[in-house]
Amino acid sequence: MELFFTDNKFRIGGHSFPKVPFFVDDQYKLIDEINEFFTNDLLVDGQINSPKTWKSYAYWLSDFLQWAEGNGVNWKAADKKEIVAYRNWSLEDCGLAPETVNARIGVLKRFYSYAARSGLVQKNPIEEVTSKAFAHADSDFLSHAHKIVLKRNDLSVKVSHELPQVFSDHEIKRLFSEVKSERLRLMMRLMLECGLRRDEVASLPSSVVEDAIQSAQQQGPGSELSFYLPARICKGGKARSVILSYPTAMKLMQYCSGSMIPDTHQGGNIAILNEVSDDQKTTFFFA
After folding, report:
1. Domain coordinates of the chain in residue numbers?
2. What pTM value is reported for the model?
3. What is the rounded CA–CA span in Å between residue 237 and residue 230?
């Protein structure tokens, strides 16, 4: 069994759907009963329309199917005990974080819901558990509701919420000193200063940067600029604005004008270039 992804030639009703996962067997024949989970279930869900999410779902499902095949488990007949065995293997043998395992079990629950509706399995081995919590009537916290309904699957594991670890000033300086590529240093600066994710920096549209540079020139030194991130590059499709400093805006202007020449030697930008998609290579840092 192998996993592939569609290109722009894959069409449904005349509309192109690239980056849709699909599985083939050892003879490279389509496994329709699995592939229809993506075409008939995920593609029609307006809440899950990100190819990145499809990709994660596909890899997590592939991981389970390969585990099942390697352990002599027929996924169509898998019961709760076998799903628990996969969960514990993911935690103990693979060392995955509880949050990651819960996300994978959630995808399996959705896959088996589809399989049950399609008649591929008799029932979904993963069930939903509903619990209730209450807020005091005089409390400001959810005082309008008083009752909170929480839903989770019955195979979820407990997650410990720890405070995030941050770099010290010394560690940040050391990190920047090790990076020789001006482009990577500028991308790192945006991530550090503005709290941007890696994919957001890699997908940053040139027009957004140009607007920020223009605002910096108008407002002058010492100004703090509103840096708008469009929904299409943000996680969850939610646009947001962040604060950009004047010095960083000037660094962006230098890079844009060519006075800051990106490194092209090995160790500079090769690693990043190999990790971005074709549509990202038309953005500010990959034009």
Report:
1. 2-117, 179-286
2. 0.69
3. 8
